[in-house]
Amino acid sequence: MDKIEILVEEYKLTNEKIEQFIRNQHQYLNTALIVIGGFLFFVLTKGIVYIKFLPIITALILGFVGYHYQRTIGIQGYKIYLEKSINKILKENVICYAQIGMKQMVYKNIFGAFNLLIYIGFYAIITYITYDSLPETENVALWLSIYIILFGVLIFAGSQIIGYAKEVTKRALEINKAALIE
What does the angle CA 68 – CA 59 – CA 115 come to, to the nearest 5 degrees? Predict the structure, then answer.
């Protein structure tokens, strides 16, 4: 295989990984809703005292989805590197989907921002309902502190996605220019 064939094969693999995340995202969210619904049923049948764990479960699920989203954004950054490498060999811009996609579907996508607001709102509503439902015997201040810390961790982790694809592209270009990895 020559260099162009290897790059094209790698490009196909990155496409498959990105498409796999998109297919799985709906499954992740549906599973999350089932878990949260099941937990609420458990709370209603076993006692309200367990509701204090609902924001923790929600934060874990949102963290899981966020991890896979960040991973996919990283793969998208690597795909941009592959496009640039292929185009450089061919000496023309034959492939540019990932570069356009990042600009239009990630950086300038109002629905993506709206989706993020929905996740933030969902966590806030779950936290409020939980806070409002906590029995008086619970240490409300402690649980509220835990929920706020989890929210801060989710925001911090989410902020790490900003510029992640560009960083992956930059690192791939640097590795390409460096000596061969042994």
Answer: 60
Cα torsion at 31, 34, 39, 45 (round to 10°)? -160
At residue 95, the 3 state secondary structure works out as coil
Polymer length of the chain: 182
| pTM for the predicted model, two decimal places | 0.74
Instruction: Report the alpha-carbon distance of residue 126 to residue 130 in Å, rounded.
Output: 6
Confidence of residue 51 (pLDDT cuts 50, 70, 90): confident
Residue type at 99?
Q
Q: If you write DSSP's letter for every residue of 18-52 in order, what string do you get?
A: HHHHHHHHHHHHHHHHHHHHHHHHHHHHH-GGGGG
Mean pLDDT of 122-151: 86
